[in-house]
Structures are given as structure tokens and as C-alpha cells.
NADPH:quinone reductase
Amino acid sequence: MVKRIQFARTGGPEVLELVDVATTDPAPGEVRVRNRAVGLNFIDIYFRTGLYPAPGLPSGLGTEGAGVVEALGEGVSHLAVGDRVAYAQGPLGAYAECHVLPADKVVRLPEAIDTETAAAAMLKGLTVQYLLRQTYPLQGGEIILWHAAAGGVGSIACQWARALGVRVIGTVSSPEKAARAERNGAWATIDYTREDVVERVRELTGGAMCDVVYDSVGKDTWETSLDCLKKRGLMVSFGNASGPVEGVNLGILNQKGSLFVTRPSLNGYADTRERLEAMAADLFAVLERGDVSVDIAQRYPLAEADEAQEALAGRRTTGSTILIP
Ligand SMILES: NC(=O)c1ccc[n+]([C@@H]2O[C@H](COP(=O)([O-])OP(=O)(O)OC[C@H]3O[C@@H](n4cnc5c(N)ncnc54)[C@H](OP(=O)(O)O)[C@@H]3O)[C@@H](O)[C@H]2O)c1
């Protein structure tokens, strides 16, 4: 038997329960990983609340973890029992002592990267990889706006963008978060709960505005984000921390300067083993060079996943959060 967090109905953190389930053997093409650390991500909250539907209930939760390969299904040749590995993509069920998942979603860790760092960096770091290097291949010299710059994804993004020679204007909700984002390499910060974001971006850029806006806050920031772009700039809407963006009139993109908009996801980029491995190699390289260091600002026992999620949803976390089985 192994312990896992599951939910039988959608709702608040109280629907999460710690249960004992039978250990399952991996089917052909699958692998069983003994988790050493599990990543906490905002997407876990979307599944718990039902914003994103789980394939069935009761359901496990979580898609990110790192640990050691314990068993291999038939036909898996790129991994071996005992390998230290990490993963960031479904199926749901990473909040557990063990997780069985398709081997194609699992990558081997280099010596230099420990399992806690991997669990804290895999989903968020692969996301930053595709956002900065693929969705808009930044060359250096651009100015970008990044909302929630002191959060998990934001903390990695500030550091990686700085290493690419990109100036990041980061939005945050407190002076402490501003200081943290600036330590991580943000060129400037704006408190979007108090300041006029568009005016501040205009001042900071001398009127030029931003090449790209990365917006994971969603509903509350959508229109402000569009106003922070230069003509023909790119709006990357990649999350819904304040609720999803709905009812968009495409004409607004014309009115605000022939803007581009995309709504990407990690699964749309790391969609084959080859692409996942190339993206992970890029992430591991910035970690090994020290361009990016992962700030594990919160650690919770697996059994306290509900409290961890409350803290994340309540804007009380910074950097990455991991659960320890
Ligand atoms: N599309 C993808 O591929 C992909 C992949 C990974 C993550 N994401 C998205 O990226 C975002 C960041 O994920 P994360 O796990 O690293 O979380 P996080 O940034 O550590 O936490 C979310 C942050 O959003 C800000 N926020 C603004 N309005 C909020 C509200 N109404 N409720 C809660 N938070 C609010 C808060 O920062 P302030 O207090 O500074 O405002 C909060 O700390 C999430 O929206 C997530 O869904 C998308």
C-alpha cells in the first residue's frame, strides 16, 4: 500500500484526503516512480475546484514529482530501475508516495540536480523554457512584462530572462514580493494592487511599451496587459490565477494595435519524448550554469497538501513549494 492525496468531489481544500491505495505495477510503456518530492502548482487547484475537469472521480492530484524509478513496464528502454528521475505532465496522481505514469513523460536527472530541486523546477522551469525560448524566441534587448513575478513560475522567469539579456518588468502584490523579484533579476517591479500598471510601464519604457506580456493572472489583468504592449506585440495568456479570461471580442486586438495573442500550455510544447528531453536539457543547463537557481520557499508534508494549496491560492507563497511524501 502507498499513501496518496485524492478527491472524490470538487471544491475547496477540504475535499483533499490522504488515503492508502494498493501499489500498481506499470503497464507496457509505463514506469513507477518512488517520489522523493512532489511539486505544488496552480493547475492542481484548477483540477481540485473543477475549473479543469479531472478524467474521473475519485481522482489523484498533481502532475509533478521527482524520485527514483522503482519498476518498469514492458518496452521501456530509456530508463532503468534505480535511475533518479523527474516528470511534470499527467496523469493526475503525483501527490503520492509512488506514481505510475507513461515513461515518455519521465526524464533522467543529471548528477548535479537533486530531487527536491527537480520537483520544484520541472513543471515551472519547462514552462519558462517554452515561454521564453519558443512561444516568443527572445533574442536579448526586449522588454517584457511578467505578472506574479515573485511566484513559482515568475521567479524562474526573472532569472532566465535576465540571463538572456531581456529586461523584465515584474508585477507583484507587496514590497516583500517586489524585493524578491528584483533579487531574481527583474529590471523593475510594479505593485499591481496599488499602482497604475499601464502608466508605470509607459514611464519605465519611455513610451515604447513591451514586446511581450506574459499573463498568468487571467481575468483581472487581461485588458491592462493588452494596454502594456507596443503595436504588433504579443500577449501570452498562460494561466487563470484570478479566473479565466472569457468573452473576448477579437476586435480589441485591432483597436489596441494589431496585437497577437496566444494561449499556450506545457502539454502543447512538450508533446513528444524528443521535445520534452530537449526542453529538459535546456532547463538543466541553466540550472547547472547557475543562471537560474530554484527557490524552494515552502515545504509541506504530503499530508498537508490542503494547507499548501490554501497558501498558494491565498497569495501567501513565493518561489516554489514542494510536498514531501
Ligand atoms: N500554461 C502553462 O503551461 C502553465 C504552466 C505552469 C503554470 N501556469 C500558470 O502560471 C501561473 C503561476 O503558477 P505557479 O504555480 O507558479 O503559481 P504562483 O505564481 O506561485 O502563484 C500564483 C500567484 O498569482 C498571483 N495572483 C494574482 N491574482 C491572484 C488571485 N486572484 N489569486 C491567487 N493568486 C493571484 C499571486 O502573486 P501576487 O501576490 O504577487 O499577485 C500568486 O502568488 C498560474 O496561473 C498557473 O496556472 C501555466
